[in-house]
Design goal:
About 25% of the residues lie in helices and about 40% in strands. By secondary structure, the chain is α+β, with helices and mostly antiparallel strands. The protein has one domain (about 5-85). A hairpin with a 2-residue loop joins β6 (about 75-80) and β7. The protein is globular, with a radius of gyration of 13 Å. InterPro entries: DNA/RNA_pol_sf (IPR043502), RVT_2 (IPR013103).
């Protein structure tokens, strides 16, 4: 089964302008985002429990490896502070 098909089954919608971006609105004020780059995924949401649930579902389908909080992506360092998220 392909990743795109699986994400759509989970209720995600593939962006028409960027096929690597999937979104899911879980309620009027909450949206989840998944960005796919080859074999890497970035999952983002303000609701940590939703992220955990999606990771569990993906792990059942694909046996994924969770690298934890994002710190590097495509050669860029990602850092967090109280002031926001920064790309270095």
């Amino acid at each position: 089964i392909k990743l795109t098909e699986t994400l759509k089954l989970f209720g995600f919608v593939q962006s028409k302008s960027d096929y690597s971006l999937f979104t899911k609105r879980t309620n009027p004020s909450l949206c989840m985002f998944i960005l796919v780059c080859v074999d890497d995924l970035i999952i983002s949401s303000s609701d940590e429990t939703k992220i955990v649930k999606v990771k569990r579902l993906l792990d059942k389908q694909f046996s994924i490896k969770d690298l934890g909080q994002l710190s590097y992506f495509l050669g860029l360092e990602i850092s967090r502070s109280d002031q926001g998220i920064f790309v270095c």
